[in-house]
Amino acid sequence: MFERLSTGWSLAKQAVGVLRLDKELLLFPVLSGISCLLVLASFAIPLFYSGALQTIEENPEGATQNVLAYVILFLFYFVNYFIVIFFNSALVGCAVIRLKGGDPTLSDGFGAAFARLPQIAGWALVSATVGLILKAIESRSQRFGQIVSSLLGMAWAITTFFVIPVLVIEGVGPIESVKRSVSIMKKTWGESLGANFGIGLMTFLLSLIGIAPIVCGGFLVASGVTILGGVLIAVGIIILLLVSLISSALNSIILAALYIYAAEGKDPDGFDANMIKSAFASKY
Questions:
Q1: Residues 80, 39 contacting (CB under 8 angstroms)
Q2: If exposure means fewest CB atoms within 10 Å of the residue's CB, which of 49, 68, 131, 280 is most exposed?
Q3: Alpha-carbon distances, residue 42 vs 47, 50, 75, 125, 148 (angstroms)
Q4: Which residues span the domain enclosing 117?
Q5: DSSP state for residue 65 in the 8-state scheme
Q6: 3-state DSSP call for residue 172?
Q7: pLDDT at residue number 63
Q8: Mean pLDDT calculated for residue range 36-63
Q9: Are 261 and 41 in contact (CB under 8 A)?
Q10: In the chain, where does DSSP find H-type helix?
């Protein structure tokens, strides 16, 4: 276990080196975030006036009878998932090109995503359905429902960890993508979780750089120094946004690297081949 976590941490550090070669990949999570905000705004009015959120949060027993509320929520989930999956697919497409020795452009990423629009739509439909089911379970009981929903959500996230690279590279449907994801996860579960831990730790440490000026700015604003305090808070928020973008890009690079070795048996460019081979030696 500790060896796998150590390997995952090393993979996370090497992913940073790969990202340095293609900093433009950060544009994909930026566009994804902006698009999701626009979708949220477009759904805010119907969600509010339909009483969907209030019904589900305050009256879970009656929520099952509110078909309109769940229809609107489902549509919201579907559009959001579609956007996130689309831009993640574009990022993974670029990462795969780089890890196979190429020099990707943004148009390569968009091309990879557009080529898989039917698969992306299918996976968005499955994800939205699962998300709505988990929300319904959670709404049935504030305590027990939240626990069950969290456990199921965690299991679903692990099971579908490699769906995006499978979808982009192999072009298969949602069911086959899940099967392939499970198969690859069995080979790389330690490295996958370890890499997530490594990226999570990096994200946490970098986030502290952004949290510090926000805290200082809050104290200054409370003390009456509003201009300087406001500037510090704004700087901190920008740093946190950048950290979030970097974390998203690193996760996609790790996914692509593990997929290339586990599914294709090739050494991803930019990663230590000997380290990866030794990590997977007992599995092949």
A1: yes
A2: 49
A3: 9, 14, 12, 19, 31
A4: 2-283
A5: T
A6: coil
A7: 46
A8: 66
A9: no
A10: 2-21, 27-50, 52-58, 60-63, 67-99, 106-114, 117-140, 144-159, 163-170, 174-222, 226-264, 273-280
What pLDDT score was predicted for residue 164? 92
Q: Which two tokens stand for residue 50?
A: 């339909």
φ/ψ of residue 102, rounded to 5: -90, -175
Model's pTM, two decimal places? 0.79
216-262 pLDDT tens trace = 988 888 888 888 888 888 998 888 888 888 888 888 888 888 888 87
Q: Which amino acid is present at 156?
A: W
Q: What is the pLDDT of residues 76-103, one digit of tens each?
A: 899 999 999 999 999 999 999 988 888 8
Q: Model confidence over 122-137: pLDDT tens digits?
A: 999 999 999 888 887 7
Residues 6+ apart with CB under 8 A from 46: 72
CA distance 203 to 16: 12
Q: Are 156 and 130 in contact (CB under 8 A)?
A: yes
**pLDDT tens digits for range 154-213:** 888 888 888 999 999 998 888 998 988 888 777 665 555 555 666 677 777 778 888 888
Distance, CA of 150 to CA of 248 (rounded, Å): 21
Q: Quick one: CA dihedral 267, 277, 162, 190, positive or negative?
A: negative
First to last CA, the chain: 18
- The total number of structural domains in the chain stands at 1
CA 35, CA 40: separation in Å to the nearest integer? 9
